[in-house]
Amino acid sequence: MLDIAIIGAGPGGLATALRLHQQGFRPHIYEAAPELKPLGVGVDIKPYAVKEITELGLYEDFRDISVEARESVFYTGYGQKIFGEECGRHMGYDHDQRFVHRGHMQMMLYKAVLDRLGEDAITLGARCKDIDQDADGVTLTFEGEPGQVRADVVIGVDGIRSVIRSKLLPESDRSHFSGLTLYRGVTVMPPIKTGGSILHIGDPIRQGTLIVYPIQDNVDGQGNQLVNWVVEQDEKPQSEEDWNQEVGIQEIEHVFDDCKLDFLDVGEMIRNARECYLFPLIDHDPLPQWSFGRITLLGDAAHAMYPRGGNSVCQAFVDARVLAERLAAVDDPAEALRQYEAERREKVNWLVMASRGEGPEVVRRIVEERSGGKPFDDIETIFPYEEALSIFSEYHAKAGMKIPGKKEGAGESGKYKSVFSTS
């Protein structure tokens, strides 16, 4: 049986351990943090990723800590509706789409690893600083304990600032600040619209972008939800690429004062934030290679992407399944890793570039440009429903979740030109 080392105990690393365990392996996880805490804010888990969680036998646990997505609706900065679509089973998919606090999901996966693989399956406070590979395996060197460790296979799942990736591909460290910054916050408030609505508000030229969705029901015992919101702003100074930089809301509390929605006071939601974090959007170019002999990359370490379209952690769950299947089916570990990369890399690299080019949020830019930044009388006259549907069909299909019963996407039917830049 292969001795497999996983570097990183984020959601992707934990899911990888669980998928490998399903295939009969008993991997060991090494995590740099001395303690795992439920950090972060919200993530959008698409139907194809809920399928992965279901196959791990964790759907009921996941359902209990998350909110079912019912609809996704796009609005201009004035609050006028551009496009809406149903989500998950409501659209006809076989699985839900769900919103969840990233830290709560990580703790769910962490508990499952401890329950199934044992309390000794994870070493905390183990920061990897070097790797060295020979014909028979890989030597990992850690700061302090456990010192040096040998493994047959190493999987780098250590995030956007991956040590493993830096050792394998030093040139990948040359990243570029996009000039865009995210303010990510949560507010305790009554349910919005369906109680499972994700709202995409604003224009990328005049105001920036606001995404709003709930991530926990009845958070206070009084029926209120924990609502996650993300404000994207341009021309801000670069900060550290770290999800956990807590800041105030002074710079953004009045940005969306022009937005008039009869079901939501956007400014009040932001001003009532329980917490707010700053995160710069850094351009990480798609990697030309993930696997190097007995070492491979997975999740953000392999395909760091903007959090647009909600596919980053979802794709990591797919990575985990494919990698575990290949390691179980192919005797030669290096060949198994090559096959895993061959199946996954180009598909995910498309999403990396599409998310850099706004992903499905591009529809708000289209409307802003065609309307001249002014309110309109009829959305059909400037952005027909069928054109919008073609954009979403293409994006969903590329992400691995073709809309049930819908026409082919723009890139396939040719009726509308693709708006996604992947160059």
Describe this structure in words.
The chain has 423 residues and is an alpha/beta fold. It has a domain at 4-40 and 102-174 and 286-356: FAD/NAD(P)-binding domain (3-Layer(bba) Sandwich), CATH 3.50.50. It is built from twelve helices and 19 strands. The chain has an eight-stranded mixed β-sheet. Strands 8-2-1-12-19 form a five-stranded parallel β-sheet. The chain has a three-stranded antiparallel β-sheet with strand order 3-7-4. α1 (11-22) links the parallel β1 (4-7) and β2. α1 packs parallel to α4 and α8 runs antiparallel to α9. The longest helix is centred in the last third of the chain and has 24 residues, at 333-356.
Descriptive labels:
globular; 8-stranded mixed β-sheet; FAD/NAD(P)-binding domain; 12 helices; alpha/beta; 423 residues; 5-stranded parallel β-sheet
Helix content: 25-40%
CATH homology-level superfamily of the domain at 4-40 and 102-174 and 286-356:
FAD/NAD(P)-binding domain
CATH domain class name of the domain at 4-40 and 102-174 and 286-356: Alpha Beta
Placed side by side, the strands forming the largest sheet appear as: 6-5-14-15-16-13-18-17
Ranges where pLDDT stays below 50 over 5 or more residues in a row are 408-413
Distance N to C terminus: 42 Å
Mean pLDDT: 90
Largest sheet: 8 strands, mixed
Give a topology summary:
Blueprint: E1 4-7, H1 11-22, E2 28-31, E3 42-45, H2 47-55, H3 59-65, E4 66-68, E5 71-75, E6 81-86, E7 98-101, H4 102-117, E8 122-124, E9 127-134, E10 137-143, E11 148-151, E12 153-156, H5 163-168, E13 176-189, E14 197-201, E15 209-216, E16 225-234, E17 245-246, H6 266-271, E18 275-283, E19 295-297, H7 300-303, H8 312-329, H9 333-356, H10 362-371, H11 385-398, H12 410-413
Parallel strand pairs: 1-2, 1-12, 2-8, 5-14, 12-19
Antiparallel strand pairs: 3-7, 4-7, 5-6, 9-10, 10-11, 13-16, 13-18, 14-15, 15-16, 17-18
Helix pairs in contact: 1-4, 1-8, 2-8, 8-9
